[in-house]
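ok so for the tutorial part 2 we go from a plain amino acid sequence to predicted structure tokens. step 1 is just haveing the sequence, like this:
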Amino acid sequence: MHLVQDPNAPRAAEISFDQFLAVDIRVGTILAVDPFPEARKAAFKLTIDFGAGIGTKRSSAQLTQNYEAAHLVGRQVAAVVNFPPRQIGKFMSEVLTLGFPDEQGNVVLFSPDKAVPNGARLF
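step 2 — the prediction. this is what the tokens look like for a chain of 123 residues:
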């Protein structure tokens, strides 16, 4: 999958509201951050608590350019929780942690500006 990072790129094709609802985006709190030296691009292994309905899931995230591991623990992040798990090296990434590219193309996390319950769904 190629992700367009050009802020001047035209918008994607229209989708229906039902298609939007099919993407399950939830908020969770990062419980642990581990190094991921085997990754092709510098990344962390995140353990994220999405509350009772979803549970705890793992994610590989290329955040090393903008974040230190110690500052990520306790932070709430948004993630797609209904994609199939994806094998990344020897690591199984269960959710897609969401972010936007900064001026250099490095990930800036997408997260609520106030605390919300883990597992809350984006609408």
